[in-house]
Amino acid sequence: MDKVAILERKLVPSGKVILLGAGRLGIRVFERLIMVHRGGFYNLTVFDGGKVEENDFYHIMKGAFLEENKASFLKRIFSMQDNSYKKIVAIPEDFSFSIPQKKEIETADIVISTIAGGNTLPLISQIANYCVSKNIPFITTNGVFGFGNEKIKVFHSLNNVTEGPALFLKNENFPSDSSLVTFVGTGKLIKDELPITPMNLDRIADEIVLEALREYYRRKKSERKRTNR
After folding, report:
1. Structural domains counted in the chain
2. In a domain, 166, yes or no
3. How far apart are the two ends of the chain, measured CA to CA in Å?
4. How confident is the model at residue 163 (pLDDT cuts 50, 70, 90)?
């Protein structure tokens, strides 16, 4: 076996990422995660208790049925009979921080949240605190509104955020100084009266997955160095 073939055999998926939310942004994040080749994450676990509705055009275009659970849909579409390459776990319930859900979080290498809208700030804060306490990187959003040409901004730690709905988290019990928490988004608020476009959702999903992969591989490299000492 030549050296290239040996190296290729080493480039296999590993680790676990948990995705909270499989809506318009979540499905895009999931697509990018599952399509990473020669590496990426082995276990992709998705939480979402929502069902596909008539205006979920992206889900329907991808083959979803009306009233189908969004997490279960992703598993149905992307799962393979052989889980030796990548494994998809669909949990058809909203994340509410139950004891089993907390235990699930503890097994993750990266946690990504696309939960937004309504009064979700306390939940986001709770998840962030728990991830930080377990030394697990947490990536969440900071606004998805905009026409599609807005700059997608990435902030590491809440203290570095200069605009966007993430600023409201400063009123919560949030780990503001932790660099384990990353915010990605346009920084636009619902009061700005801008639409949510597929262009921005695609670009935000790109940045979220880039951040997840960079941090996971950075940690893997650091762990190898410690092991080899």
Report:
1. 1
2. yes
3. 29
4. very high
Q: How far apart are CA 197 and CA 150, in angstroms?
A: 11
Type of residue found at 123: L
Q: Looking at the whole model, is its pTM more than 0.90?
A: yes
| Strand ranges inside 58-152, DSSP E | 87-91, 110-113, 138-141
Please check whether residue 164 is in contact with residue 194, taking contact to mean a CB–CB distance below 8 angstroms. Answer: no
8-state DSSP, 65: P
CA distances from 118 to 43, 115, 131 (A): 29, 10, 22
pLDDT category at 83 given cuts 50, 70, 90 is confident
Residue 4 lies in a domain: no
Tell me if residue 44 falls in helix, strand or coil. strand
Query: Which domain, by its residues, includes 188?
Result: 12-223
- For residue 67, give both structure tokens: 């009233």
C-alpha torsion 190→193→198→199, nearest 10? -110
